[in-house]
Amino acid sequence: MRLLFVADPLDTFKVAKDSTLAMMRAASAKGHEVWHCEIDQMSYLEGAVRCAAQHLNILTDTTLVPWYKVQKQSVEAATFFDVIVMRKDPPFDVAYLTATWMLAQAEKEGAIVLNKPQALRDHSEKLALLEFMQWAPPTIVTHHVSDIREFHQKHQDIIIKPLDGMGGMGVFRIGADGLNLASVVETLGQHGQKALMAQRFIPEISEGDKRVLLIDGKAVPYALARIPQAGEVRGNLAAGGEARAQALTNREKEVVQAIGPLLAARGLHLVGLDFIGGYLTEINVTSPTCFVEITQQTGHDVAIEWLSSIESKFA
Questions:
Q1: Whose CA is closest to 280, among 309, 306, 254, 247?
Q2: Does residue 25 have an active-site annotation?
Q3: What is the DSSP string of 101-159?
Q4: Whose CA, among 29, 59, 172, 232, lies 20 to 30 Å from 192?
């Protein structure tokens, strides 16, 4: 197969743990063609969506940097590729939104895109949770500091976060004293211009913010618990969390069984569900990570599982 990865610039990949690179390595090892382009390299020209893409030779020596050689650069119709894998990291800004529209047009022309562009637009990584509140902690989304004050008075210990953050960016805990609540809301919400999410603080964050990966609606058998550093409430690896692979709990399996097939049916082939203390806290659909950490700690090759799923459906 020809696989086109729409992703960030290659020189920004974190070589030691990048999940997109793990996908590329797995595909290359199986003899598939690996191509790459950035979102601004997609255009509509001469009646079709076209990609100024690079055909990559992924080097087998994983210690080498750069880790690839460019075999060929060419402008190809989106339908030239068997599968287009959308792996652009957030922010979900106008440029990202435009890319999903471009990829949706490519689908109309016959391209296969994972995750499905419409599903990416429809599932905000924070707001998608609202559909599944039976599995989530008490949560509100609002522009108004008064709503968050009332929520805080009820729950005493809360987390406030922006809707467009990633990697733990902009996440604040407000304790029982309510210190700095108004300042945090005004700063994150830009004085009411942006809506914020508030959730009841879950003490079990000390045991990890757990990432459960779904591939075509089914869970990878191991989750990655991201343990916060001392004095932190953010377990995200980007915020310094420690990664520990663990078998899924019965609660996590129950949630996966309930919502996994539904998300897959909507075109979300790869999803990252985040859990704290058994509560579902986020649904990540843009570029879920943690492939490498799970594989290294358990021997279960997540990238191969992901590739096998694609091969079974599209090869």
A1: 254
A2: no
A3: HHHHHHHHTT--EES-HHHHHH--TTGGGGGGGGGS-SEEEES-HHHHHHHHHHHSSEE
A4: 232
Annotated active-site residue 226? The verdict is yes
Residue type at 12 in one-letter notation = T
Each residue of 175-216: pLDDT tens digit? 999 999 999 999 999 999 999 999 999 999 989 999 999 999
Catalytic residue among 76, 282, 293, 305: 282
One of 87, 126, 200, 210 is an active-site residue; which one? 126
How do residues 133-190 score in pLDDT, each as one tens digit?
999 999 999 999 999 999 999 999 999 999 987 777 889 999 999 999 999 999 999 9
Catalytic residue among 25, 161, 200, 210: 161
Examine the residue annotation and report whether 282 is marked as an active-site residue of this protein: yes
Please indicate whether residue 161 is annotated as part of the active site.
yes
Name the catalytic one among 50, 88, 210, 211. Answer: 211
